[in-house]
């Protein structure tokens, strides 16, 4: 990142976990710049490299957030103006992207490793190392909003998330950039579904934190192969297996969906919405063109042992938003040579399901998360 300060040309290493490129225009700023001027700068795409104290930067970020919220259409208005739940979904995503872009342009400087070079700044070296890795030499800069997010994520990692399905004291410690299992309904479905008659081996595809692999191992599956394409998730799942004393029963591999071989049970909780992700964390929520869903279904028959089952854990929010056709899922199941053995359903327990100000409230309030028990369709005889 390069900018001019006084008459001097300066540069700093740019840090952005979400893949945002360094801003092209940067101006130094401190408390002498009013909120209105600061908001005008960031709306025009000019980043503010903060030179005041840390608490003033946080106050400015809050003020910018209020302005961004006020300038954008309110949630009820967005929902009212959208002609369909799908349009409301796309309007909401565009508004979220606009807000993220604007608020990401308030920058803080780093020096001497992960030291925030502002008066009154907290110690953030452990959180930054967890997210970015060891610091490079020389000055750096990054978004204050991202820093606050990764500090919060580090607290989740340090304390862990309690998972009742893992038994007393069972906790999962998400790594930065790996989706945290804060919505427990899908975990409970895997904990409650009846296991196949023979369940000595299982595959957990797209394991993330490894929470479902751990639940299966705790339920008595002797060997679980957990896969993920993201190296961060692979490291996270291995870490959690070790913390839970399950390393000998859970083999975590970096792979795109299926590992080698066959299993009695294959479990997949793919991203629930067929849309394009914008950030690394988005990939846990958005599955463009249902790539992972289709790959799981299409490969199940070739990776199940005789009498085995494939468990698909999926919300119907995509159907309710019009992002997936009403019969598309059952059509994909049939096209993959699979049949439905049973289905377990649960209602959402997250706060958004009861938030009437959310433009997607109607869809969210009726959302159902299901565990589909699938078997291989027997070939038809003559």
TrEMBL record:
Naturally occurring in which organism (per UniProt): Streptomyces monticola
PROSITE patterns: N6_MTASE (PS00092)
UniProt region (Disordered), positions on chain: 1-24, 65-88
Any matching Pfam family: MTS
Protein keywords: Methyltransferase, Transferase
Protein name as catalogued: Methyltransferase
Biased composition (Low complexity): 73-86
Limits of the Methyltransferase small domain: 175-315
Lineage: Bacteria, Bacillati, Actinomycetota, Actinomycetes, Kitasatosporales
Keyword Nucleotide-binding recorded: no
CDD domains per record: AdoMet_MTases
A Gene Ontology BP annotation from the UniProt entry: methylation
Top-level division of the source organism's lineage: Bacteria
Single annotated GO MF: methyltransferase activity
